[in-house]
Write a structure and sequence with these properties.
3 domains; phosphoglucomutase activity; globular; seven-stranded mixed beta sheet; Alpha-D-Glucose-1,6-Bisphosphate, Chain A, domain 3; alpha/beta; phosphoglucomutase (alpha-D-glucose-1,6-bisphosphate-dependent); TATA-Binding Protein; 27 strands; about 35% helix
Amino acid sequence: MTRIVTVPTTPHEGQAPGTSGLRKKVRVFQQPGYAENFIQSVFDVVTPTPGATLVIGGDGRFHNRTVIQQAIRMAAANGYGRVLVGQGGILSTPAASHVIRKYGASGGLVLSASHNPGGPDEDFGIKYNIANGGPAPESVTAAIHARTTGIDRWLTVEAADVDLDRVGEAMVGEMTVQVIDPVADYADLMETLFDFDHIRKLVASGFTMRFDAMSAVTGPYAHEILERRLGFAPGTVVNGTPLEDFGGHHPDPNLIYAKELYDLMMGPQAPDLGAASDGDGDRNLIIGRGRFITPSDSLAMLAANIEIAPAYRGRLAGIARSMPTSGAADRVAEAFGVPCYETPTGWKFFGNLLDAGKVTICGEESAGTGSDHVREKDGLWAVLLWLNILAVRGISVDDLAKSHWARFGRNYYARHDYEGVDKADADALMAELLAALPSLPGTVFGPLVVAHADSFAYTDPVDHSVSANQGVRVLFEDGSRVVFRLSGTGTQGATLRVYLERYEAPSGHLDADTGVMLEAQVAAAEAAAGIVRHTGRIAPDVVT
């Protein structure tokens, strides 16, 4: 009988899971008992049934292997019967969701800080996904946080490290540890969703692409699917080996951190499609030759064409988007006669809608798009759906975008990120905005007149739970808007996100410069919130 070791501990402050779990600097996680306290709090809250299966995997960033080994021993001590762990500790976030669902696991620990930088001086994170494969809902994360504030012990067993690099089985105490191929199950799933034969014909016809895996987790998946199964030329996937520090990249697929890809796609030697994914593989960037597609537009364009893919024919039940995401998807839903749900930021809010069959596709402006095939956003899935659509329709990315806008109109959209803002300053800005909400309607900012202003709250249509204080909205009489929100994905200071949107009808200016089209909204955002006054920042750090 394996001896369970009880290790006394005391609470660590600041272990409240954010939008996507607990994220801190590596040095914080390296404190004695820090990761262990959080993992034990998860196990204490979810209380696994004896013999349950747990999935563990991550994006390969620094400290992943250390935490995985400890999590395996702790799982054995807490009564799990089996752990499935990706070879090398690797599982992309969407792949982890699929593995949880396919093998009937009770849940999973996903070790990632997503699009945040990796390395000894950078970021690390842990989140718990429930049995449906999706992030734990707020009721569970709140309970986990509460437990972290009073935890006094964590459980483990005495056992050697598992060889994470060899596929096969090992025993840790009385528990089976199965090291699995991290790619195979996911790649097989993609073949059931999309018309790979049609895409192969497109590739054979000379269609070219560049996929930047950003030295992160998607590399092995992209090599297998794009180059081996679909026939793209070797070298199509760049930065395809996951590295603990992402090769010094900031693995966020936006126009700042994927500038090399953007420059290629805007140049004379551009392939037909450029794409990228982030640290843990759940985000995507889509750029056609000479045409950047905003994530909000990508969601709308994919939704309008999703029934082209074999697995989605005749079954677009609805669309969901996060509140800060543009209303482009709403216009598609209206045209197709299906509902469009507006949720708070965070994929966990889509889980109930997906489980209930209310939506088929959902997405966020932060480059996350996904469907009911898993319960996470899925970067490579979005790229494959784009490929399937382009293959069947026989048009370029640019032509697809123009035809979409000609039918639905265009939502000009941008997000301005002010990163590493002093938290007190950011909180003061938001508090001032909230206090001003009652007086904002009727206020004139240049050519814009405020029609409505509020703090967004969401009532889940499935379980009727309420999530309040999800961002400040300022809506103008011309239909444009500005949204202010503090991000929950950073690890240092606060990130102020300002979302700007303006709609142009099909008869309007559909191919103008986004910055020019949003000048009035940018000025209104500054006037309403006093960004420079509160933060000292005269310009955003990132514009997407």
